[in-house]
Design brief:
- The chain is mainly beta.
- The protein has a single domain, classed as Sandwich (Immunoglobulin-like), CATH 2.60.40.
- Helix content is about 0%, strand content about 40%.
- The strands form two sheets. A four-stranded antiparallel sheet has the order 4-3-2-7, with no helix packed on it. Strands 1-6-5 form a three-stranded antiparallel sheet, with no helix packed on it.
- The N and C termini lie far apart (about 50 Å).
- This is DMBT1 protein.
- Keywords: Disulfide bond, Signal.
- InterPro entries: ZP-C (IPR055355), ZP-C_dom (IPR042235), ZP_dom (IPR001507).
Length: about 120
Amino acid sequence: PYYVDMNQNLFLEASLHSSDQNLTLFVDTCVASPNSSDFKTLVYELTESGCASDSTYALFPSSRSDVARFGFNSFSFVNRFPSVFLQCKLVVCRYQDYSSRCYQGCVSRFKRNADS
């Protein structure tokens, strides 16, 4: 466990361990939950499809393509839960494959009107 105060800045880093140095890493979706085994029922979205859902979420530059850095302010689930667990989905792509998901960035999905 990592103990933090409310509204403290948290900085995280994910790294890819592979002998193939021609890969890059992209943070697609991160959600937080008060339950370490349930990331569906009560969740707080930090980012979805590469788009920040939380105003404090930020990506930070890295000199290495196989390292993704990001951060956000700590929070609690209505002070009823003593812990918050984080689950992130990352995408691995070929370095400089600009048609890959890693280079698309934020992908917002628009819903169509049922009338059209």
